[in-house]
Amino acid sequence: MIGVVPAGLLLAAGAGSRMGRPKALVHDERGSWLQRAVAVLREGGCDPVVVVLGAAPEAADLLPPGVRAVLAEDWAEGMGASLRAGLAALDALDAASVEQVVVTLVDLPDLVPAVVARVVAAAETGRGEALARASYDGEPGHPVLIGRDHWAGVRDVARGDRGARDLLSAGDVLLVECCDLAGGEDVDSLPGSPGHQRDADA
Length: 202
Fold this sequence. Notes:
Layout: E1 7-12, E2 27-28, E3 31-32, H1 33-43, E4 49-53, E5 68-71, H2 79-92, E6 100-105, H3 113-123, E7 131-136, E8 139-147, H4 151-157, H5 165-170, E9 174-177, E10 186-187, E11 196-197
Parallel strand pairs: 1-4, 1-6, 4-5, 7-9
Antiparallel strand pairs: 2-3, 6-8, 7-8, 10-11
Helix pairs in contact: 1-3, 2-4
């Protein structure tokens, strides 16, 4: 039996005010955060991959062939707008067979494909009903896997910076421990400066 192949959804629309530039345009000593995040989703087993942009639409030029960029016109509203735009784009694709989506953020520079693969493997049997997310020392983080059965509900609750928090708080979410693979930290400022924190929203 062929396993479930989830889509990948990368949220990269924010202005990065504390970073001093949109996070979709940030580079470090290992290269572009945007390109690395796309590679993590692809190598972790996601296909297709959709990237949501907003403050820096020009970042679409950094994307490899086969990755679709979507502009969230209302990106300044917060993460919820990006999540709604990304799910709408996936619904519009000729991809009715896509039963799950793996959602992650561009500002998780230590995320590795093995984390994505572990979350996907843990949620495979749930198919369209699946809800799973990586955790780090018991704290929920990214990536978050959402089965298609929940997409409409996510769009209903995704407002402001809450993303899918309400759904994930109320639902039966499988936590997949990944602290042996990554730290799961959401980096809100330039490397080497204060402001690193783990973002528990989707």
